[in-house]
Design goal:
It contains 3 helices and 5 strands, in the order E-H-E-E-H-E-H-E. By secondary structure, it is an alpha+beta fold. Strands 1, 2, 3, 4 and 5 form a 5-stranded mixed beta sheet that branches. It is globular and about 40 Å long.
Amino acid sequence: MAENYRVVFPDGYHGRREAETADKGWLDVEVAFADGSVFPVSFYDPARLRQTIEDEIAGGSLYFTEPNLVILKKVTTSNIELAVKDMVDTGFFDSIEARDGFSGDSGQ
């Protein structure tokens, strides 16, 4: 899969939303490959993940799940791009199921 991918950020991400992402502590993106496969990935920082889990449990949920969850020290565009590159290089996307199509703004 090497370099035949791109990180697809949510529509309108680049600008104010990008600047606020680190403070919010989470972002959902898609990783789209040249073969058409697309993988949704959720990035959280530890503090936001802890808050989200506590809110779910306090709200009566028995458990918390998040498909394709990745924890970053700080959720920034560059950290997401570095993590995705490493995930591609180490074969992470070979071990999970893709979905078809994509949406969002690749920023390119």
